[in-house]
Write a structure and sequence with these properties.
With 139 residues, the protein is an all-alpha fold. Helix content is 45%, strand content 3%. The chain contains 7 helices and 2 strands, in the order αββαααααα. It is elongated, with a radius of gyration of 23 Å.
Amino acid sequence: MTLADWSIYIPMARIAGVTLQAQKRIDIALTSIYGIGRTTASKIVDEAGLEASMRVKDLTDDQADKLRVIVEKQHRVEGDLRREVLGNIKRLKEIQSYRGVRHMKKLPVRGQRTKTNNRTIRGNVRKTMGSGKRKLEKT
């Protein structure tokens, strides 16, 4: 790398295995971690004693370490949380609960209507009479 290449290098914080984008505000950047939303992110920033308007690129190493410790010690995020959610769904399927059966059939689980508007979960399948029908040429 040349000297010019190093001048555009922006150090980025890495928390819970996720690289935070350098130009974003800290409270917004933390939401890119699975399991942290806006409310949790603002609580983490307050607990670390940082300003929410601060950018990730302006963090010092000590501040980034403080954030990393808070996130990894006090919150279940990324791999652990994904494993827990999948385990919960697997348990529902095994005990054949209503929600588990809905998961097995790949249907909406949380009470949404299925007569219309469930194409996302079913993979955009259209089974009505007119859909997919070939147009006949008029002679």
